[in-house]
Amino acid sequence: MLNNHGLSNLNVGKMLTEQGVNPSHQRISILKFLLSAKTHLSVEDIYKGLHEDIPTLSKTTVYNTLSLLVAKKLISALTINETEVIYDYEVGSHAHFQCTKCKKIFDIDVNKDLLNIKNIDDHEIYETQINLKGICRNCL
């Protein structure tokens, strides 16, 4: 069955299988929820969003599934503030901007060369994150 974003359980299951992940119902549901949301979500957001439909879902399962999806590079984990990790469906090169008033997080396009640096002074770089903070145009 397709939802309004064109994601079916079959399509999401195939994404998981292609990355060597067993496509269990809970894993499919978590990835599908994250992909459909088109926003940055916390474990709590995902748990609350799915718990009614999957009453047996635990926060531990959400944490473990998200860790697996990050390891398989299907999603990315961001630490924008000191207290919470959020998860992003967009794993391509981009930066993040967080409004200090409304707390919303926005994806920002930046120079791709800056985010694709692989080596500086003989240090191997395997991940680059740029996090910006300020006041968004809606809150100004």
What does this structure look like?
This protein has about 140 residues and is α+β, with helices and mostly antiparallel strands. β4 and β5 (about 105-110) form a beta hairpin. The chain has a 3-stranded antiparallel beta sheet with strand order 1-3-2. It has a 3-stranded mixed beta sheet with strand order 5-4-8, with no helix packed on it. Strands 6-7 form a two-stranded antiparallel ribbon. Residues about 1-5 have low confidence and may be disordered. The chain is globular, with a radius of gyration of 16 Å. The chain has 5 helices and 8 strands.
Brief summary of the model shown:
The chain is an alpha+beta fold and 140 residues long. It contains five helices and eight strands, in the order H-H-E-H-H-E-E-E-E-H-E-E-E.
Largest sheet: spatial strand order: 1-3-2
**β-strand number:** 8
- Unreliable spans are 1-5
Order of helices and strands: HHEHHEEEEHEEE
Sheet having the most strands: 3 strands, antiparallel
Overall morphology: globular
Question: Whole-number average pLDDT?
Answer: 83
How many helices? The count is 5
Proportion in β-strands: 15-25%
The portion of residues assigned to helices is 25-40%
Rg (C-alpha, Å): 16 Å
Going by helix content, strand content and strand pairing, the class is: alpha+beta
Give the CA-CA distance, first to last residue.
42 Å
